[in-house]
Design brief:
This protein is of the alpha+beta class. It has 6 domains: about 30-240, no CATH class; about 265-375, Beta-Lactamase (2-Layer Sandwich); about 400-505, PAS domain (Beta-Lactamase, 2-Layer Sandwich), CATH 3.30.450.20; about 505-600, Helix Hairpins (Orthogonal Bundle), CATH 1.10.287; about 600-755, Heat Shock Protein 90, CATH 3.30.565; about 780-910, Response regulator (Rossmann fold). Helix content is about 55%, strand content about 15%. The strands form 4 sheets. Strands 11, 12, 13, 14, 15, 16 and 17 form a 7-stranded mixed sheet that branches.
């Protein structure tokens, strides 16, 4: 830890209780205080040790003395007595050897109790004494004073020597002396002589003296053992105290290290100052919280130096604004020189926005400890809690006064609280609903159980769910409720509550039901209208096909030309028929647009080529009316617009033809161009009569001709209304600027677009057929399946003028299929509406047969709706001709079909 003071300065309770006071010296036990039992045990061990130590010296000395006795008494004593005594001595020595050996083995293995070993040693010593005492009986000679004296001297010497060697055990020593000298003394006294008696008494007195001497020796041994045990006890006490001191030192070191780690690991910053106000210790957390370098704190600064550092580095903010108001005034006084004690507890913010709680604790001796705690989380949580409580109060107020029914349920979906709206809506008050489930209260026979199960599954997976359910009220009525339920999770991730909000949408449900019925009715009416338009298109185009077809044949018959008056009449028929056909197309287009059935294909359209194409188409009309037609500035660089090319062409042709038709002779029509960032516009300006304000208001109304109904110019007043609606479908618009007498300007706005990356424009319903073969034409066989004999006659009249074409007509679809199988044609022209099976089924059978699968099949029908054409293309028709038939397209299709090379006609020209 990077702190300047030592760990010994830390205020630890155990340190002040133990380490801070002087250590007393250990109590050394006196000799008198040694336990008697301990002394006896030590004395027993000492005796056994001495027995083992003195065993061999005693045996050696006694053996040597025995040999001397044998030598000295070899002639003085009888041989038998000497031999017996020597045998007794040898036996005692052997016993002493055996006992000593057993004593050592038992002592090493601790097999026998020590007291039993001691008594065995004592008996061995006593046996040796008895052996020497036998010498006083066996070797004593009453007539030989010299031998008596020598024997008394030898036995006294042996007794004294044994006593000196066994003085540590008075019992054994005294037994040896008594058993050695007593027989001799008694024998001398029994001899009756004065000298003998005197020597006998002296021997017995010597026994008493030796006993006193042995007692004193044993007392010395005891005192020695006691002193040694006391010293040993003192050494043990010193060692134990030393070990205790070592344990205390180790524990102190361990606790100091643990305290250092603990202080550095604490979430609080700590600073200790001594009585002089100088830093004693600090931890790393203090440096982190106060944003003070550890190197500065390690220099043991005073509190004044720390405060100056903080003030210089702006730790308290401008005018101490980071401290709470209570501490702010104290800090101002302290830094102004009035060193009154700071509040023991105060709060302040740091420059990083952390909220610190500063506490001061004074120590004995004028020192102090300051702690700095980061309480930011607490204050933030308190602010969030206050905000949450305020929000909950607002939500409770809203829930209590909202018209929506609100119910709060527990984790088991049992009601805990409902608002007044819930009671008003369902009739169940909180007292009645508490503890019950919403489904139990409101579910009826008409409630969708599957919807309830789906709602439960959605709640489990998404934590929220919504449904529209039909419930039954308390009074038996039913109503539709839109319910939205949210799951409230606890901090542990478990479900705590469900909040359900319900609103009565019975009225809206009824309105939606009525709206759905109205929509279904409108869709039915729209389908009926579409079917009617399709039927009208078919019914009107079928006779127009014959009228225009035969009129064209009459007008172009070079073999039998009509007289000029008749040709004029036919041309009037063609002119009227063409006008009628255009009127039919406009009416049907307008009806489709208003019905929302007009499909629009938005794609990038090159504006320059389309404008040139439209100008070329209306130029003959302009020349006929002697109107100057100009296309100023619309070239290939005019860019691209987002439009349906066919419908945009229809709009431009309508506007250009109107500008020409309603112009004055010798007038002019000018087509201008301009573009902006996102839009492009085309101006079509004429020099006609112009329009007034009232006319401009009614200009785009269908069937409104603005008073031109009785004029020479034909029309139905549909074109402008149709153009406006088509432009709106293409996200464009049309505007008009006109003044009476000066002409009109129609401006068409279109969205700009980027050039496409695919091939140039090709109309999707009129794909290019294979080009004509380069070889000479051969016979082309065409099969026409048509149930209307007039249409069949018209087709025969048209194709009979084409060289190399042989037409076969079939009025029934089954006959046409047989003809196709028997003699596969090069082209099949197929009507859609046929008796029995329609044209789609005929096409399917042709495609299913290997003989006819590759034959081009072109639909020929009066169904001119775009949906009809798209359906035919999707079914597999190669092309689609609408009635009245465009003869130029028809002849082009016939010319492009693959002819049968060298095939001779093999059948009638018609069948059926």
């Amino acid at each position: 830890m990077a702190t300047a003071p030592t760990l010994a300065a830390f205020p630890m309770k155990w340190y002040w209780a133990n380490a801070s006071r002087p250590m007393s010296a250990p109590a050394v036990p006196a000799a008198a205080s040694v336990d008697a039992e301990r002394v006896e045990a030590a004395l027993l061990r000492e005796r056994l040790h001495l027995y083992d130590t003195n065993r061999w010296p005693a045996i050696a000395s006694q053996s040597a003395v025995a040999l001397l006795v044998v030598g000295a008494f070899w002639r003085a004593a009888s041989a038998s007595a000497l031999a017996v005594w020597l045998g007794v001595v040898v036996l005692s020595v052997c016993v002493r050897i055996v006992v000593g050996a057993r004593l050592r083995r038992a002592q090493l293995s601790r097999a026998l109790p020590q007291r039993r070993l001691l008594w065995a040693a004592r008996l061995a010593v006593a046996g040796s004494g008895a052996a020497w005492g036998a010498a006083g009986v066996l070797l004593y000679s009453s007539s030989d004073l010299q031998s008596q004296t020598l024997l008394a001297f030898v036995l006294a010497g042996v007794a004294a020597g044994s006593l000196s060697m066994t003085a540590f055990d008075l019992s054994a020593a005294f037994a040896f002396v008594v058993l050695t000298l007593t027989p001799l003394g008694l024998r001398m006294i029994a001899a009756g002589g004065s000298a003998d008696t005197t020597m006998g008494l002296m021997a017995l007195l010597f026994v008493a003296l030796l006993g006193l001497s042995g007692r004193r020796g044993q007392q010395q041994v005891r005192e020695m053992v006691i002193a040694r045990e006391a010293e040993k006890l003192r050494a043990e006490s010193l060692l134990d105290h030393q070990q205790q001191l070592q344990r205390i030192s180790d524990e102190l070191l361990h606790k100091s290290e643990a305290l250092a780690v603990t202080l550095d690991s604490m979430d609080q910053g700590m600073l200790s100052l001594d009585e002089a106000g100088q830093t004693q210790f600090f931890n790393r957390r203090l440096a982190d919280l106060l944003d003070i370098p550890e190197s500065f704190l390690a220099s043991r600064p005073t509190m004044d130096e720390i405060a100056r550092y903080q003030l210089e580095h702006g730790h308290f903010g401008q005018d101490f604004m980071l401290a709470e108001p209570q501490a702010r005034s104290s800090l101002r006084r302290w830094f102004s020189g009035d060193r009154q004690p700071l509040p023991q507890t105060y709060l302040r913010r740091t420059r990083r926005g952390t909220m610190l709680e500063v506490k001061t604790r004074f120590l004995p001796g004028a020192g102090l400890v300051r702690t700095f705690s980061d309480v930011t989380a607490f204050f933030d949580a308190r602010e969030r809690l206050l905000a949450s409580q305020a929000e909950e109060s607002k939500l409770a107020l809203v829930a209590a006064h909202t018209d929506n029914a609100v119910a709060i349920t527990d984790a088991d979906d049992r009601i805990e609280w409902v608002n007044a709206a819930f009671t008003r809506l369902t009739g169940h008050a909180l007292e009645q609903a508490a503890g019950r489930r919403i489904a139990e209260l409101l579910r009826g026979d008409q409630t969708d159980i599957d919807a309830l199960q789906r709602m439960d599954a959605q709640l489990r997976s998404e934590r929220k769910a919504s449904a529209e359910l039909r419930y039954q009220l308390k009074d038996g009525r039913t109503l539709w409720l839109a319910i939205e339920t949210h799951v409230v999770m606890g901090p542990d991730g478990a479900v705590r509550h469900h909040i359900s909000i319900a609103r009565d949408f019975s009225a809206r449900h009824a309105a939606e039901q009525a709206l759905r019925l109205a929509r279904d009715e409108a869709e039915r009416a729209s389908r009926a209208k579409s079917e009617f338009l399709s039927a009208m298109s078919h019914e009107l185009r079928t006779p127009m096909n014959a009228i225009l077809g035969f009129a064209q044949l009459l007008d172009t018959d070079a073999a039998r030309p009509l007289a000029e008056p008749h040709r004029a009449h036919v041309r009037h028929i063609l002119q009227a028929g063409t006008h009628l056909l255009a009127l039919i197309d406009d009416v049907l287009d307008l009806a489709r647009v208003e019905a929302g059935k007009q499909p629009i294909l938005l794609e990038p359209v090159a504006l320059g080529p389309l404008v040139r194409e439209c100008l070329d188409l209306v130029r003959p009309l302009a020349e006929q009316r002697q109107v100057c037609l100009e296309g100023a500035g619309v070239g290939d660089d005019a860019g691209w617009v987002a439009a349906d090319r066919t419908r945009l062409k229809q709009v431009l042709l309508n506007l250009l033809s109107n500008a020409i038709k309603y112009n004055r002779e010798g007038g002019a029509v000018r087509l201008g161009y301009g573009c902006g960032p996102a839009e492009t516009w085309l101006d079509i300006t004429d020099t006609g009569l112009g329009l007034g304000q009232e006319q401009r208001v009614r200009l785009f109304t269908a069937f409104e001709r603005l008073g031109a109904e009785d004029g020479p110019i034909q029309g139905a007043g549909i074109g402008l209304a149709l153009s406006k609606r088509m432009l709106e479908l293409m996200a464009g618009r049309i505007e008009v600027d006109s003044e009476v007498g000066t002409g009109s300007t129609f401006r068409v706005w279109l969205r700009r677009d980027e050039a496409p990356v695919h091939a140039p424009y090709q109309h999707p319903l009129l794909p290019a057929l294979p080009a004509e073969p380069d070889t000479a034409p051969a016979t082309r066989r065409v099969l026409y399946i048509e149930d209307n004999p007039v249409n069949a006659m018209l087709m025969e009249a048209v194709l009979e003028r084409v060289d190399g074409v042989r037409l076969v007509c079939a009025t029934l679809p089954e006959v046409g299929l047989e003809l196709a199988q028997a003699d596969p044609p090069d082209l099949v022209l197929l009507d859609i509406q046929l008796p029995g099976i329609d044209g789609f089924e005929v096409l399917r059978r042709l495609r299913a047969s290997p003989a006819t699968v590759a034959i081009p099949v072109v639909a020929v029908s009066a169904n001119a709706m775009r949906s009809d054409i798209e359906r035919a293309r999707a079914a597999g028709f190669d092309d689609y001709l609408t009635k009245p038939i465009d003869f130029e397209r028809l002849l082009a299709l016939v010319q492009r079909c693959g002819p049968s090379r060298g095939h001779a006609p093999t059948g009638p020209a018609s069948a059926g």
